[in-house]
C-alpha cells in the first residue's frame, strides 16, 4: 500500500545556553499508509508533540527527513501548498481559534487565504457545508469561541482543518481537553470523516483507550525514540517491550479487584527532563527486566515478529533475533 507520510531518522535538538542541546527526538522513523491511522503513544515529554510540529512543517528537523505523499517536505516552497496537503488539529481548541473571529469568519478566512471559494454566497455555502460535516448547524455561524463548549470548539477546529481539503490530518491529543462524555462523540466524528473523505490520520495521544478506537498501527515512544511499533492488536495484545506493557497496564479497568491490583504495583519514576538519555536502553532505570547489557548497549529497533518491531535486548533474545551491533549473544 502507498505511504501517505514517512519519516526517516528524524532528530530534533533545541539549543541551551552553556549546556548541551535538548534532544526532543532521537532518530524517529515511522510510516503512515494511505487511508489508515497511525497511533503515536507515550507519556508526557516523550516527543509526541514535537514530532507533530515537524510533520506539518511548523519546525524544521535538526537531521533526518519527512516525506509527504511521496515528496520530501522541503520540496514545498510555499507553506500554502503544504497546508493544502496536511493539517494539524491542536489539543486545546480554544487556544487554536482566534477569539476575535466568529465561526463563520474563521472558516471563511481559511477559504479566502487559499482561494477556495469566492466571497459572497459561494463562500457562505461552503462554510455551512463544513459545519454540517462536523455535525454543527448554521446556528453556530455567528458564535465566538467562548460561546462554544469544548466539544463544539474542537469540531470547529476540525472543520477549519478540513476546509483546505487535506489528505493527511495530524491530531495532537484532540480529545484530552474534552469532558469524558464528549470524547466518544468526537472520536466517532473522526472515524466517520476518515471513511467519507478517505483521510489518513496520525493520532497522537497518551490514552491507549482513545487510540484503540481509531488506530490501525501504533508506534510507542519513550524519551524521543520509538521503542515498539506494529499493528495495534499485536503491539497491545502481545507487547514485546516492557514499557508498552506498563502503558497497557496503566489503563484503568472497570473491574475493582483488577484495578486495585494494578494500583498496588510499584512503578518506576520517569527520568527528569534533562534532555539526556541514560546509557544503554533508555528505559533501563525503570525496567524490571533490565540486565547488564541493557545498561551498556542501546538496543536496535528490530523485527521480532511479523510486522512487529521492538527495541529490547530481552525481547530479542526470547525471539531468537540477533543484534547487528552485538552479533548473536543469545547463546549465553
Tell me what you see in this structure.
The protein contains 13 helices and 13 strands. By secondary structure, the protein is of the alpha/beta class. The chain has 2 domains: 221 residues, P-loop containing nucleotide triphosphate hydrolases (Rossmann fold, 3-Layer(aba) Sandwich); 78 residues, no CATH class. A hairpin with a 2-residue loop joins strand 12 and strand 13. Helix 4 crosses helix 5 and helix 6 runs parallel beside helix 7. The longest helix is centred in the middle third of the chain and has 18 residues. The chain is globular. The C terminus is likely disordered.
Can you give me a brief rundown of this structure?
The protein has 332 residues and is an alpha/beta fold. It is 33% helix and 23% strand. The chain folds into 2 domains: 3-223, Rossmann fold (3-Layer(aba) Sandwich); 240-264 and 279-331, no CATH class.
Protein traits:
Rossmann fold, 13 helices, 13 strands, 332 residues
Please name the CATH architecture of the largest domain: 3-Layer(aba) Sandwich
CA-CA gap between termini: 40 Å
Identify the overall geometry.
Answer: globular
What is the CATH topology of the largest domain? Rossmann fold
Looking at this structure, what is the CATH superfamily of the largest domain? Answer: P-loop containing nucleotide triphosphate hydrolases
Query: How many domains?
Result: 2
Radius of gyration: 21 Å
Mean pLDDT: 87
CATH class of the largest domain: Alpha Beta
Proportion in helices: 25-40%
Amino acid at each position: 500500500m502507498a505511504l501517505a507520510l514517512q519519516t526517516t531518522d528524524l532528530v530534533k535538538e533545541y539549543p541551551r545556553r552553556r549546556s548541551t542541546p535538548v534532544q526532543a527526538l532521537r532518530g524517529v522513523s515511522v510510516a503512515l499508509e494511505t487511508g489508515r491511522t497511525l497511533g503515536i503513544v507515550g507519556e508526557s515529554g516523550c516527543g509526541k508533540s514535537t514530532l507533530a510540529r515537524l510533520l506539518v512543517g511548523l519546525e524544521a528537523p535538526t537531521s533526518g527527513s519527512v516525506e509527504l505523499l511521496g515528496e520530501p517536505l522541503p520540496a514545498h516552497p510555499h507553506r500554502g501548498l503544504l497546508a493544502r496537503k496536511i493539517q494539524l488539529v491542536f489539543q486545546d481548541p480554544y487556544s487554536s481559534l482566534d477569539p476575535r473571529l466568529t465561526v463563520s469568519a474563521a472558516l471563511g478566512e481559511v477559504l479566502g487565504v487559499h482561494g477556495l471559494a469566492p466571497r459572497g454566497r459561494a463562500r457562505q455555502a461552503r462554510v455551512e457545508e463544513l459545519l454540517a460535516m462536523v455535525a454543527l448547524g448554521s446556528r453556530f455561524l455567528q458564535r465566538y469561541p467562548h460561546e462554544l463548549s469544548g466539544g463544539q470548539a474542537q469540531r470547529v477546529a476540525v472543520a477549519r482543518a478540513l476546509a483546505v481539503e487535506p489528505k493527511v490530518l495530524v491530531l495532537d491529543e484532540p480529545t484530552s481537553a474534552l469532558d469524558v462524555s464528549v470524547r466518544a462523540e468526537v472520536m466517532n466524528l473522526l472515524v466517520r470523516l476518515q471513511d467519507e473523505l478517505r483521510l489518513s490520520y496520525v493520532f497522537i495521544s497518551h490514552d491507549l483507550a482513545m487510540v484503540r478506537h481509531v488506530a490501525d498501527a501504533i508506534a510507542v515512544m519513550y524519551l524521543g525514540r520509538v521503542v515498539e511499533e506494529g499493528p495495534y492488536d499485536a503491539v497491545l495484545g502481545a507487547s514485546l517491550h516492557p514499557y508498552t506493557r506498563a502503558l497497557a497496564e496503566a489503563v484503568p479497568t472497570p473491574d475493582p479487584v483488577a484495578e486495585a491490583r494494578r494500583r498496588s504495583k510499584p512503578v518506576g519514576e520517569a527520568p527528569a527532563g534533562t534532555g539526556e538519555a541514560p546509557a544503554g536502553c533508555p528505559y533501563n532505570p525503570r525496567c524490571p527486566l533490565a540486565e547488564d547489557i541493557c545498561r551498556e548497549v542501546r538496543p536496535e529497533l528490530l523485527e521480532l515478529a511479523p510486522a512487529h518491531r521492538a527495541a529490547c535486548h530481552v525481547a530479542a533474545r526470547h525471539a531468537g533475533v540477533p543484534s547487528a551491533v552485538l552479533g548473536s549473544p543469545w547463546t549465553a
